[in-house]
Write a structure and sequence with these properties.
The chain is an all-alpha fold and 192 residues long. The protein has helices at residues 3-17, 21-41, 45-68, 74-96, 101-127, 135-153, 159-189.
Length: 192
């Protein structure tokens, strides 16, 4: 198959996958990010929390629908984590306005995601497969959501509690990076 034919096949695949229910839910989550930011900045904390809860529930729902109805797509394998990571960054950015330690967490998170993006791209290039999230990534996402939601609903959380929660999130981010790195190395070992 020529490169031109391969590009046409990939374009056709993306067009076919673009409007699956799980992917529509991921687009919806992306649209909720500026809504959350605006609500948080205007100190509408309850509405901001509800927005995060809706985002989190739609994340769970899109995964269940994709698996149950065989709607797992390569586009979804990329789109879902992009929506997760952008939502997480938005939450951390907003919470950092009140809790300075959150800037460190945001920085660590961004560095980890850049490293994983580069590794994921390299694995895709070498194996021609898009890999799904694994348990540690899902755990990290869930804990970050819970911690950020706690900070949103309790905007005057004691600093010690906030720092403790931040340390837990940082530990999971580092663990996630280690586990994914090992996974990518293993996947690349099979391409020799």
């Amino acid at each position: 198959m020529s490169n031109e034919e391969k590009k046409r096949d990939i374009g056709k695949q993306i067009r076919e996958e673009a409007f699956s229910i799980p992917n529509l839910l991921s687009y919806f989550r992306l649209l909720l990010i500026p809504v959350f930011i605006a609500l948080y900045v205007h100190e509408e904390f309850t509405a901001a929390l509800i927005t995060l809860a809706v985002s989190g529930l739609s994340d769970i729902l899109d995964g269940r629908i994709a698996r149950k109805y065989n709607m797992v797509t390569d586009l979804g394998k990329v789109l879902d984590p992009v929506a997760d990571k952008l939502t997480q960054c938005a939450m951390m950015l907003c919470v950092a306005m009140r809790y300075p330690a959150m800037w460190w967490l945001l920085g660590l998170h961004v560095v980890k995601e850049i490293i994983m993006l580069v590794m994921g791209w390299y694995v895709l290039k070498k194996t021609d497969t898009v890999n799904s999230a694994i348990w540690v990534g899902k755990l990290c996402t869930g804990v970050i959501y819970a911690v950020m939601m706690l900070h949103v609903i309790l905007p005057y959380l004691p600093q010690a509690v906030s720092i403790g929660c931040t340390v837990v999130c940082a530990g999971l981010i580092v663990l996630s990076l280690i586990v994914y790195t090992a996974r990518y190395i293993k996947l690349l070992g099979g391409t020799k």
